[in-house]
Design brief:
By secondary structure, the chain is α+β, with helices and mostly antiparallel strands. The protein is built from four helices and four strands.
Length: 226
């Protein structure tokens, strides 16, 4: 039976509807897959960027922390240096005050004469030479000569040995020092410095650990005291 035009048109319309439906479903499928792939790629990119951002700020945080540690270390070192400088200044002031007090000793003739006697005899015993030369301040020549005269006898009696002593009348010790003497052997290659400044310096070196403890307290980090 031959199809009429109406039947043909109806079948064509039906086929076109089917094709359009298939095409629509295919488009929806493609769109859904594209959306899924887009979301996956977007998530990957977002995660990648999130990781990069986290790494960036972690690095910045570490840099800031490192900078903070360096700054704190510098501030601590600066504070420590200020403390050490202040302590050194205090010790210097203390030694300067001690020097000023030493200068007062020479103003007391009796005390200074007794002190010179001890320094002269000590110089003799340290050198143990048969001939020595003594240098002193010009204003101390008579007092030193008296100390020499007294100690020659003591030295001879103690060591059973003779000693010849002369006072250098050409080269005196500076008048601005606190006092004391220098004792030389015959060829002047060996010297015993018994000036008051030198004695103070030696004593300060020996007693410096005790002085620091008295002034600043014991250092808990110090293992040795000598």
């Amino acid at each position: 039976m031959a199809l009429t035009d109406a039947d043909v048109k109806k079948q064509i319309k039906h086929m076109m509807g089917f094709i359009e439906q298939e095409a629509g479903e295919k488009v929806e499928e493609i769109d859904a897959k594209a959306e899924e792939e887009f979301n996956i790629e977007k998530g990957r990119l977002v995660q990648t960027q999130r990781v990069k951002i986290m790494q960036y700020y972690e690095k910045k945080e570490k840099q800031i922390e490192q900078h903070k540690k360096i700054k704190m270390s510098n501030l601590t070192n600066q504070a420590r240096l200020k403390v050490l400088t202040a302590r050194d200044n205090m010790i210097t002031d203390l030694l300067n005050e001690a020097r000023q007090r030493l200068a007062e000793i020479a103003k007391d003739p009796a005390s200074y004469a007794s002190l010179l006697e001890g320094l002269v005899l000590q110089g003799f015993y340290q050198l143990l030479e048969p001939k020595v030369t003594i240098r002193c301040r010009q204003q101390d020549v008579e007092t030193v000569q008296a100390a020499v005269n007294k100690n020659i006898h003591i030295y001879k009696e103690t060591l059973k040995s003779n000693i010849v002593v002369q006072i250098d009348q050409e080269r005196f010790l500076p008048s601005e020092i606190c006092g004391g003497i220098e004792v030389y052997n015959d060829n002047r290659k060996i010297k015993v410095s018994n000036t008051l400044e030198n004695r103070l310096e030696l004593m300060a070196q020996q007693m410096m650990p005790e002085i620091r403890v008295d002034l600043f307290g014991a250092n808990p980090n110090r293992r040795f005291t000598d």
